[in-house]
Write a structure and sequence with these properties.
- With 321 residues, this protein is α+β, with helices and mostly antiparallel strands.
- 23% of the residues lie in helices and 27% in strands.
- Strands 5-6-7-8-9-11-12-13 form an 8-stranded antiparallel barrel.
- A hairpin with a 3-residue loop joins β8 and β9.
């Protein structure tokens, strides 16, 4: 996470001020011990060691050197804690901060720069804006090779349009997948560029126009440039129960983002009730008849065997003669 103090009049006075700004960008509560800050002056040689900002006095000394005019610009860096970077590495998230469904998408250009801008709104109250390359053929190599600048924050509908609060800004990687190691540079949003007001044009809510913060520091229009946006999907209020919209930037992974309907658990096996077998309507007399015949046959064989073995032999008529 990077603080570029040359782009803002805001200056930290304590170490807690820096921690609070990082927590605000990602909407998490952070403790001072979770982050370590280092500072660097623009006039320092590349081999010069970074200045550790581990106390309030160290922060004040570093900032006062910049306000006194000793250096032209200053930057402060910090590494995000693991619990924050782990959320940023989740591959199926459509945005860093948003956790809901996409309810609308607007697209257009900055009028003075011909720079494309897309704005996506989510029902959880977050938005994701992407500043892409210019529409002209003479686009810079940096713009064409990168994935664009992404701005995320919170949105709220007003009587005349949308009010946007910018929380974080970063350069989107050229690949569609985020780096597995969480590598990336997230910028501190200056206090002068955090609020943007976009008004509805006409009677409907399918067109927006207003001043939006431009990421390029060399823009001639200053911090804000006028933008006109046209809705690609109509604005659905958060209470709407419409089907979720897939993210156009992740079209080739759209099949991974579809919601899988929950599988119904298999019905439990029916326990066999032996009483039901005895209480059925089938007649029982064939069973009893079979048992009786079986017993008679056994007794008959037993009697024949006994007669052959133990019964006395009777003299025949020939023997008497």
């Amino acid at each position: 996470f990077l603080f570029d103090l040359a782009r803002t009049t805001w200056r930290p006075k304590t170490l807690r001020d820096l921690v609070a700004e990082v927590g605000r960008a990602f909407e998490v509560d952070l403790a001072t011990g979770e982050l370590g800050f280092v500072g660097c002056d623009s006039g320092s040689p590349p081999e010069a060691p970074l200045e550790r900002l581990d106390s309030d006095d160290a922060v004040l000394r570093f900032v006062e050197r910049g306000t006194s005019g000793e250096v032209d610009s200053q930057v402060i860096r910090t590494e995000l804690p693991d619990r924050v970077s782990a959320e940023l590495r989740r591959p199926r998230k459509l945005a860093l901060l948003a956790s809901g469904r996409q309810v609308s998408k607007f697209s257009g250009v900055f009028a003075d720069l011909e720079v494309e801008l897309s704005l996506k709104l989510f029902d959880c109250g977050h938005f994701r804006a992407k500043e892409g390359g210019t529409r002209s053929a003479s686009a810079s190599p940096t713009t064409s090779s990168s994935g664009g600048v992404v701005i995320e924050g919170r949105w709220q509908e007003t009587e005349t349009g949308l009010s946007l609060e910018v929380l974080v800004r970063f350069q989107e990687p050229s690949g569609r997948r985020r780096p597995l190691d969480g590598a990336g540079l997230y910028d501190f949003v200056p206090v002068e560029e955090r609020i943007a007001e976009l008004g509805f044009v006409g009677r409907g809510d399918d067109r927006l126009a207003g001043e939006f913060p431009i990421a390029s520091s060399t823009a001639e229009c200053g911090r804000f440039c006028r933008v006109e946006l046209q809705a690609e999907t109509s604005l659905q209020r958060p209470a709407s129960a419409a089907a979720p919209q897939a993210d156009d930037d992740d079209e080739e992974y759209r099949h991974l983002l579809k919601e899988v309907p929950p599988r119904k658990p298999p019905p439990p096996p029916k326990s066999r009730d032996w009483d039901d077998d005895w209480d059925n309507d089938e007649p029982r007399w064939p069973m009893y008849l079979g048992i009786v015949l079986f017993i008679i046959i056994i007794l008959t064989f037993a009697w024949v065997w006994y007669e052959e073995q133990y019964a006395p032999e009777t003299p025949t008529d020939f023997e008497e003669l």
